[in-house]
Design a protein that fits this description.
single chain, alpha+beta, Trna Endonuclease, Chain: A, domain 1, four-stranded mixed sheet, two-stranded antiparallel sheet
């Protein structure tokens, strides 16, 4: 299996956005699922042990923000003018997880009431977490 990189994700996202085709969307998800790690922003807290992946509220629903690489997370944190995602020295706070563990974590968040996941917020895509398992099953079959 070849490893996906973020430029491939960007190309696949643009294609899926332009065509709206189910195959193109499946290819985008397949590439995201092949990544070795997914990344999450976390807000600054005094105790490192208290840092958790950021969950934002959009349209009165809680969403976990997922990034396909650290650069995407850093870009988003810079674009929103430091909503608590950077240390005093300007370092962006990012939690990176193996993709399989990140998926398990996201599914556990859904069980706690988190509605959806926003991937590469600002220039990405989103899905209700309820759809994540069927998406994975579909991508793995095709």
């Amino acid at each position: 299996m070849t490893q996906t990189n973020n430029s491939e994700i960007s190309i696949l996202l643009a294609k899926a956005e332009n065509t709206g085709d189910r195959v193109d969307l499946a290819n985008l998800w397949r590439a995201a699922l092949r990544l070795p790690k997914w990344h999450f922003l976390t807000k600054h807290t005094a105790d490192l042990e208290d840092r958790k992946p950021f969950i934002g509220i959009i349209d009165n629903q809680p969403w976990v923000f997922v990034f396909t690489d650290r650069g995407e997370a850093q870009k988003y944190a810079a674009d929103i003018h430091n909503e608590g995602f950077t240390e005093k020295n300007g370092e962006v706070m990012i939690i990176s997880m193996d993709t399989d563990k990140a998926i398990d974590y996201i599914l556990a968040l859904h069980a706690k009431g988190v509605y959806g996941m926003r991937i590469n917020e600002g220039n990405g895509w989103f899905s209700p977490i309820l759809n994540l398992t069927p998406i994975i099953e579909y991508v793995n079959k095709n």
